[in-house]
């Protein structure tokens, strides 16, 4: 079955199998150099780079192509310090008041994370990703969106890969609960905060926890049937 209205696929690039193997390996090597870091420099990053990375995220596949996402790119020092303040208050509840529970805190120990989040203020860009349960392609606020979580997850993955490819370091951050982000970013209650992406140059003291270096082998994550 053909869609009612369609265009020929005219931008697909075919590579021979040798090129394909080389490209898949190069991309693997490149993505293996992406690390979540928790120290960012305040060096500025042009807004146009962030715009392009958001457009890359917006090119992700989504349920019925409804694109149920919004990206709030925060550069304002005032908003970043508000986010830092509120995220740190929540994280203090998570870590110090043990709202996380013992098992979760134990699982985080090898990462060395704590409630102190200076990078939320230092990094040049914070990108708050929001999901929309309703709205459709026209953003009418009513039409049901489908596979919202999956769609926004894919778009966020594209965003992280695009930022890395552009030469920026990233951190996924999910303060719990994240509802304060809606207010800070001025988003309506038809949107839910999904994730906060910190982006910028790494700080001079940026480190990679040994725990984070361990990636499962192919045998552990895949089966070929
Ligand atoms: N949001 C907290 C806790 C945290 C949770 C997980 I799961 C991580 O992989 C890392 C951190 C924080 O940012 O510290």
TrEMBL record:
Key word DNA damage present: no
Pfam families reported in the protein's UniProt record: Nitroreductase
Biological source species: Ferrimonas sediminum
Annotated GO MF terms: oxidoreductase activity
Transmembrane domains' residue ranges: none
Protein name (database record): Nitroreductase
Domain of life: Bacteria
Keywords, ordered alphabetically: Flavoprotein, FMN, Oxidoreductase
InterPro entries associated with the record: Nitroreductase, Nitroreductase-like, Nitroreductase/BluB
Domain Nitroreductase: start-end pairs: 32-201
